[in-house]
Amino acid sequence: MKAVRFHEFGGPDVLKYEDVPEPEMRKDEVLIRVKACALNHLDLWIRKGLPGVTLPHINGSDVSGDVVKVGEYINDIKEGQRVLLAPMNFCGHCQQCMEGRQNMCREFTVLGYLNDGGNREYIAVPRVSVIPIPASIALTYDEAASIPLVFLTAWHMLVGRCDIKAGQIVLVLGGGSGVGSAAIQIAKMLGAKVIATAGDEAKLDKSRELGADYTINHYKEKISEEVRKITAKAGVDIVLEHVGKATWDESVKSLKPGGKLVTCGATTGPEAQFDLRVLFAKQLSFLGSYMGTMGELHEVLKHVFSGKLKPVVDKTFPLREARAAHERLEKSQQFGKIVLNP
Hints:
Layout lengths: L1 E4 L10 E4 L9 E10 L2 H8 L13 E9 L11 E4 L2 E2 L5 H4 L10 E2 L11 E5 L3 E3 L8 H5 L2 H14 L7 E4 L5 H12 L3 E6 L2 H10 L3 E4 L5 H8 L5 E6 L6 H6 L1 E9 L12 H6 L3 E4 L5 H12 L7 E6 L3 H9 L6 E5 L1
Parallel strand pairs: 10-11, 10-13, 11-12, 13-14, 14-15, 16-17
Antiparallel strand pairs: 1-2, 3-4, 3-8, 3-17, 4-5, 5-9, 6-7
Helix pairs in contact: 4-5, 4-10
Protein backbone atom coordinates (compact mmCIF):
# COMPACT_ATOMS: atom_id res chain seq x y z
CA MET A 1 0.00 0.00 0.00
CA LYS A 2 0.99 3.64 -0.33
CA ALA A 3 1.78 5.91 2.61
CA VAL A 4 3.55 9.14 3.41
CA ARG A 5 6.30 8.72 5.96
CA PHE A 6 9.66 10.23 6.85
CA HIS A 7 12.97 8.55 7.63
CA GLU A 8 14.57 11.61 9.25
CA PHE A 9 13.32 14.71 11.04
CA GLY A 10 13.24 18.01 9.19
CA GLY A 11 11.20 20.24 6.90
CA PRO A 12 8.37 19.26 4.55
CA ASP A 13 10.93 17.88 2.10
CA VAL A 14 11.54 14.82 4.32
CA LEU A 15 8.03 13.52 3.59
CA LYS A 16 8.15 10.56 1.18
CA TYR A 17 5.22 9.03 -0.71
CA GLU A 18 6.20 5.36 -0.89
CA ASP A 19 5.21 1.72 -0.63
CA VAL A 20 4.92 0.29 2.88
CA PRO A 21 3.73 -3.09 4.21
CA GLU A 22 0.00 -3.44 4.83
CA PRO A 23 -0.90 -3.50 8.55
CA GLU A 24 -1.22 -6.83 10.31
CA MET A 25 -4.65 -6.99 11.96
CA ARG A 26 -5.23 -8.60 15.35
CA LYS A 27 -8.40 -10.52 16.17
CA ASP A 28 -9.64 -7.61 18.30
CA GLU A 29 -9.00 -4.96 15.64
CA VAL A 30 -10.76 -3.46 12.65
CA LEU A 31 -9.08 -2.80 9.30
CA ILE A 32 -10.01 0.57 7.80
CA ARG A 33 -9.56 1.79 4.24
CA VAL A 34 -8.55 5.41 4.82
CA LYS A 35 -10.58 7.85 2.74
CA ALA A 36 -9.40 11.06 4.38
CA CYS A 37 -6.90 12.16 7.03
CA ALA A 38 -6.79 15.72 8.36
CA LEU A 39 -3.64 17.55 9.41
CA ASN A 40 -2.91 19.06 12.82
CA HIS A 41 -0.04 21.19 14.09
CA LEU A 42 1.09 18.05 15.90
CA ASP A 43 2.03 16.61 12.50
CA LEU A 44 4.46 19.49 12.00
CA TRP A 45 6.06 19.06 15.43
CA ILE A 46 6.46 15.30 14.97
CA ARG A 47 8.01 15.79 11.53
CA LYS A 48 10.48 18.29 12.97
CA GLY A 49 11.37 15.90 15.78
CA LEU A 50 9.71 14.96 19.08
CA PRO A 51 11.01 12.56 21.78
CA GLY A 52 9.88 8.95 21.50
CA VAL A 53 9.08 8.96 17.78
CA THR A 54 10.49 5.90 16.01
CA LEU A 55 11.67 6.33 12.43
CA PRO A 56 10.47 5.78 9.79
CA HIS A 57 7.17 7.27 10.92
CA ILE A 58 3.67 7.80 9.49
CA ASN A 59 1.77 10.86 10.76
CA GLY A 60 -1.99 11.34 10.91
CA SER A 61 -4.40 11.64 13.86
CA ASP A 62 -7.76 12.39 12.21
CA VAL A 63 -9.07 9.54 10.07
CA SER A 64 -12.29 8.66 8.27
CA GLY A 65 -12.91 5.73 5.95
CA ASP A 66 -14.62 2.40 5.36
CA VAL A 67 -14.46 -0.84 7.32
CA VAL A 68 -12.69 -3.42 5.17
CA LYS A 69 -12.30 -6.32 7.58
CA VAL A 70 -13.39 -7.09 11.14
CA GLY A 71 -11.45 -9.21 13.63
CA GLU A 72 -13.15 -12.42 14.74
CA TYR A 73 -13.59 -11.15 18.33
CA ILE A 74 -15.82 -8.31 17.08
CA ASN A 75 -19.49 -8.71 16.18
CA ASP A 76 -20.99 -5.19 16.29
CA ILE A 77 -19.29 -3.62 13.26
CA LYS A 78 -19.84 -4.62 9.65
CA GLU A 79 -17.70 -4.48 6.56
CA GLY A 80 -18.50 -1.47 4.40
CA GLN A 81 -19.57 0.81 7.25
CA ARG A 82 -18.47 4.44 7.04
CA VAL A 83 -16.54 5.39 10.17
CA LEU A 84 -14.31 7.94 11.80
CA LEU A 85 -11.63 7.10 14.34
CA ALA A 86 -11.03 8.32 17.87
CA PRO A 87 -7.72 10.21 17.62
CA MET A 88 -6.13 8.53 20.63
CA ASN A 89 -4.70 5.35 22.10
CA PHE A 90 -4.89 4.26 25.75
CA CYS A 91 -4.51 1.06 27.76
CA GLY A 92 -8.20 0.61 28.60
CA HIS A 93 -7.63 -1.20 31.90
CA CYS A 94 -5.92 1.21 34.31
CA GLN A 95 -7.88 3.08 37.00
CA GLN A 96 -7.96 6.27 34.93
CA CYS A 97 -9.32 4.48 31.86
CA MET A 98 -11.87 2.54 33.89
CA GLU A 99 -13.10 5.81 35.42
CA GLY A 100 -13.49 7.38 31.98
CA ARG A 101 -10.43 9.62 32.12
CA GLN A 102 -8.55 8.08 29.21
CA ASN A 103 -6.49 11.23 28.64
CA MET A 104 -4.97 10.72 32.11
CA CYS A 105 -3.83 7.17 31.26
CA ARG A 106 -0.06 6.70 31.56
CA GLU A 107 -0.11 5.03 28.14
CA PHE A 108 -2.28 7.70 26.53
CA THR A 109 -1.00 9.03 23.23
CA VAL A 110 -2.45 10.77 20.21
CA LEU A 111 -2.99 8.55 17.18
CA GLY A 112 -0.05 9.10 14.83
CA TYR A 113 2.34 10.36 17.50
CA LEU A 114 4.08 7.42 19.23
CA ASN A 115 2.47 5.03 16.74
CA ASP A 116 1.90 5.13 13.00
CA GLY A 117 -1.13 7.17 11.99
CA GLY A 118 -3.50 7.57 9.08
CA ASN A 119 -1.41 9.03 6.25
CA ARG A 120 -1.73 5.74 4.37
CA GLU A 121 -4.26 3.65 2.51
CA TYR A 122 -5.11 1.19 5.31
CA ILE A 123 -4.91 1.27 9.11
CA ALA A 124 -5.76 -1.35 11.75
CA VAL A 125 -7.14 -0.05 15.06
CA PRO A 126 -8.85 -1.42 18.21
CA ARG A 127 -12.64 -1.67 18.11
CA VAL A 128 -13.02 1.06 20.76
CA SER A 129 -11.48 3.57 18.36
CA VAL A 130 -14.02 2.95 15.59
CA ILE A 131 -17.08 5.22 15.56
CA PRO A 132 -19.73 4.53 12.89
CA ILE A 133 -21.03 7.54 10.96
CA PRO A 134 -24.86 7.39 10.99
CA ALA A 135 -26.19 6.45 7.55
CA SER A 136 -28.70 9.29 7.73
CA ILE A 137 -25.97 11.94 8.05
CA ALA A 138 -24.82 13.77 4.92
CA LEU A 139 -21.18 13.94 5.97
CA THR A 140 -18.35 13.65 3.47
CA TYR A 141 -15.17 11.75 4.33
CA ASP A 142 -13.24 15.06 4.32
CA GLU A 143 -15.70 16.56 6.78
CA ALA A 144 -15.65 13.47 8.99
CA ALA A 145 -11.84 13.55 9.17
CA SER A 146 -12.01 17.22 10.17
CA ILE A 147 -13.98 16.49 13.34
CA PRO A 148 -12.34 14.26 15.95
CA LEU A 149 -9.22 15.91 17.37
CA VAL A 150 -10.24 19.57 17.22
CA PHE A 151 -13.86 19.21 18.33
CA LEU A 152 -12.86 16.89 21.18
CA THR A 153 -10.06 19.24 22.23
CA ALA A 154 -12.27 22.34 22.13
CA TRP A 155 -15.08 20.55 23.99
CA HIS A 156 -12.75 19.36 26.75
CA MET A 157 -11.28 22.86 27.09
CA LEU A 158 -14.58 24.72 27.30
CA VAL A 159 -16.86 22.17 28.92
CA GLY A 160 -14.58 19.73 30.74
CA ARG A 161 -12.02 22.20 32.07
CA CYS A 162 -13.81 25.57 32.16
CA ASP A 163 -17.41 24.49 32.80
CA ILE A 164 -18.60 27.16 30.38
CA LYS A 165 -21.91 28.87 31.17
CA ALA A 166 -24.45 30.66 29.01
CA GLY A 167 -23.88 34.41 29.02
CA GLN A 168 -20.13 34.22 29.57
CA ILE A 169 -17.69 35.89 27.20
CA VAL A 170 -15.03 33.70 25.58
CA LEU A 171 -11.91 34.92 23.79
CA VAL A 172 -10.84 32.40 21.13
CA LEU A 173 -7.26 32.84 19.95
CA GLY A 174 -6.74 31.86 16.32
CA GLY A 175 -10.31 31.54 15.13
CA GLY A 176 -9.07 30.22 11.78
CA SER A 177 -7.38 27.19 13.32
CA GLY A 178 -9.05 23.81 13.64
CA VAL A 179 -9.47 24.13 17.41
CA GLY A 180 -10.48 27.78 17.09
CA SER A 181 -13.17 27.16 14.47
CA ALA A 182 -14.58 24.33 16.62
CA ALA A 183 -14.44 26.42 19.82
CA ILE A 184 -16.35 29.32 18.25
CA GLN A 185 -19.22 26.99 17.38
CA ILE A 186 -19.25 25.15 20.71
CA ALA A 187 -19.21 28.37 22.75
CA LYS A 188 -22.06 29.85 20.71
CA MET A 189 -24.11 26.65 20.89
CA LEU A 190 -23.82 26.75 24.68
CA GLY A 191 -24.98 30.35 24.90
CA ALA A 192 -21.72 32.27 25.31
CA LYS A 193 -20.58 35.40 23.49
CA VAL A 194 -17.42 34.96 21.44
CA ILE A 195 -14.53 37.25 20.59
CA ALA A 196 -12.28 35.61 17.98
CA THR A 197 -8.86 36.68 16.77
CA ALA A 198 -7.27 36.05 13.37
CA GLY A 199 -4.49 37.48 11.24
CA ASP A 200 -6.34 38.69 8.16
CA GLU A 201 -9.74 40.05 7.18
CA ALA A 202 -10.82 36.93 5.29
CA LYS A 203 -10.34 34.80 8.41
CA LEU A 204 -12.14 37.39 10.53
CA ASP A 205 -15.09 37.31 8.13
CA LYS A 206 -15.23 33.51 8.28
CA SER A 207 -15.00 33.60 12.09
CA ARG A 208 -18.08 35.83 12.14
CA GLU A 209 -19.85 33.45 9.75
CA LEU A 210 -19.23 30.66 12.28
CA GLY A 211 -20.86 32.76 14.99
CA ALA A 212 -18.20 35.02 16.51
CA ASP A 213 -19.85 38.16 17.91
CA TYR A 214 -16.68 40.25 17.72
CA THR A 215 -13.33 39.83 15.96
CA ILE A 216 -9.83 41.20 16.48
CA ASN A 217 -6.99 41.30 13.95
CA HIS A 218 -4.13 40.24 16.18
CA TYR A 219 -1.53 41.59 13.75
CA LYS A 220 -3.02 45.08 13.57
CA GLU A 221 -4.68 45.48 16.96
CA LYS A 222 -3.64 44.88 20.56
CA ILE A 223 -5.82 42.05 21.80
CA SER A 224 -6.21 43.15 25.41
CA GLU A 225 -7.04 46.73 24.45
CA GLU A 226 -9.73 45.61 22.02
CA VAL A 227 -11.14 43.23 24.63
CA ARG A 228 -11.42 46.12 27.11
CA LYS A 229 -13.35 48.14 24.54
CA ILE A 230 -15.68 45.28 23.67
CA THR A 231 -16.37 44.34 27.31
CA ALA A 232 -16.55 47.89 28.71
CA LYS A 233 -13.28 47.26 30.59
CA ALA A 234 -14.65 44.14 32.31
CA GLY A 235 -12.54 41.49 30.55
CA VAL A 236 -13.54 38.00 29.45
CA ASP A 237 -14.57 34.97 31.48
CA ILE A 238 -12.55 32.46 29.45
CA VAL A 239 -9.53 32.68 27.18
CA LEU A 240 -9.03 29.67 24.91
CA GLU A 241 -5.27 29.55 24.25
CA HIS A 242 -3.20 27.36 21.97
CA VAL A 243 -0.87 29.92 20.39
CA GLY A 244 1.60 30.16 23.27
CA LYS A 245 4.44 32.63 23.68
CA ALA A 246 3.27 35.19 21.09
CA THR A 247 -0.13 35.80 22.70
CA TRP A 248 0.27 34.73 26.34
CA ASP A 249 0.66 38.21 27.88
CA GLU A 250 -2.30 39.57 25.95
CA SER A 251 -4.38 36.56 26.93
CA VAL A 252 -3.68 37.09 30.63
CA LYS A 253 -4.41 40.81 30.39
CA SER A 254 -7.75 40.06 28.70
CA LEU A 255 -9.14 38.09 31.67
CA LYS A 256 -11.64 39.53 34.11
CA PRO A 257 -11.11 38.94 37.86
CA GLY A 258 -11.82 35.27 38.50
CA GLY A 259 -11.38 34.45 34.81
CA LYS A 260 -9.99 31.23 33.39
CA LEU A 261 -7.25 30.76 30.81
CA VAL A 262 -7.23 27.27 29.31
CA THR A 263 -4.46 26.13 26.99
CA CYS A 264 -3.89 23.05 24.85
CA GLY A 265 -0.87 24.06 22.81
CA ALA A 266 2.11 26.28 22.17
CA THR A 267 2.29 26.89 18.43
CA THR A 268 4.62 29.90 18.75
CA GLY A 269 6.73 28.52 21.60
CA PRO A 270 6.31 26.93 25.05
CA GLU A 271 7.90 29.64 27.21
CA ALA A 272 5.39 31.79 29.11
CA GLN A 273 5.98 34.31 31.90
CA PHE A 274 3.49 36.07 34.12
CA ASP A 275 3.36 38.12 37.29
CA LEU A 276 2.29 35.92 40.20
CA ARG A 277 0.76 38.97 41.86
CA VAL A 278 -1.67 39.29 38.95
CA LEU A 279 -2.52 35.60 39.28
CA PHE A 280 -3.45 35.73 42.94
CA ALA A 281 -4.75 39.32 43.14
CA LYS A 282 -7.22 38.76 40.28
CA GLN A 283 -7.86 35.18 41.45
CA LEU A 284 -7.28 33.79 37.98
CA SER A 285 -7.24 30.13 36.96
CA PHE A 286 -4.65 28.80 34.50
CA LEU A 287 -5.76 25.41 33.20
CA GLY A 288 -3.99 22.83 31.09
CA SER A 289 -6.01 20.72 28.68
CA TYR A 290 -4.90 17.65 26.75
CA MET A 291 -7.23 16.21 24.11
CA GLY A 292 -10.23 14.74 25.98
CA THR A 293 -11.99 11.53 26.98
CA MET A 294 -13.92 8.98 24.96
CA GLY A 295 -17.10 10.05 26.75
CA GLU A 296 -16.52 13.65 25.70
CA LEU A 297 -15.82 12.58 22.12
CA HIS A 298 -19.15 10.76 21.92
CA GLU A 299 -20.86 13.74 23.58
CA VAL A 300 -19.58 16.30 21.10
CA LEU A 301 -20.25 13.95 18.17
CA LYS A 302 -23.95 13.93 19.10
CA HIS A 303 -24.02 17.65 18.33
CA VAL A 304 -22.06 17.17 15.10
CA PHE A 305 -24.31 14.35 13.92
CA SER A 306 -27.39 16.44 14.76
CA GLY A 307 -26.08 19.28 12.60
CA LYS A 308 -25.58 21.79 15.43
CA LEU A 309 -21.78 21.75 14.98
CA LYS A 310 -20.18 21.66 11.55
CA PRO A 311 -16.65 20.63 10.56
CA VAL A 312 -14.74 23.27 8.63
CA VAL A 313 -12.69 21.97 5.69
CA ASP A 314 -10.09 24.38 4.35
CA LYS A 315 -8.53 22.51 1.42
CA THR A 316 -7.89 18.93 0.34
CA PHE A 317 -4.71 17.48 -1.17
CA PRO A 318 -3.94 14.05 -2.64
CA LEU A 319 -1.83 12.05 -0.19
CA ARG A 320 1.11 12.21 -2.59
CA GLU A 321 1.06 16.01 -2.15
CA ALA A 322 1.49 15.90 1.63
CA ARG A 323 4.47 18.24 1.40
CA ALA A 324 2.30 21.02 -0.07
CA ALA A 325 -0.31 20.41 2.63
CA HIS A 326 2.32 20.73 5.37
CA GLU A 327 3.63 23.94 3.82
CA ARG A 328 0.14 25.46 3.78
CA LEU A 329 -0.38 24.63 7.46
CA GLU A 330 3.10 25.85 8.40
CA LYS A 331 2.38 29.23 6.79
CA SER A 332 -0.98 29.49 8.62
CA GLN A 333 -2.79 29.95 5.31
CA GLN A 334 -5.71 27.72 6.29
CA PHE A 335 -9.10 28.38 7.83
CA GLY A 336 -10.28 25.13 9.35
CA LYS A 337 -8.78 21.76 8.47
CA ILE A 338 -6.41 20.71 5.71
CA VAL A 339 -7.20 17.18 4.54
CA LEU A 340 -5.19 14.50 2.74
CA ASN A 341 -6.95 11.98 0.46
CA PRO A 342 -5.15 8.65 -0.06
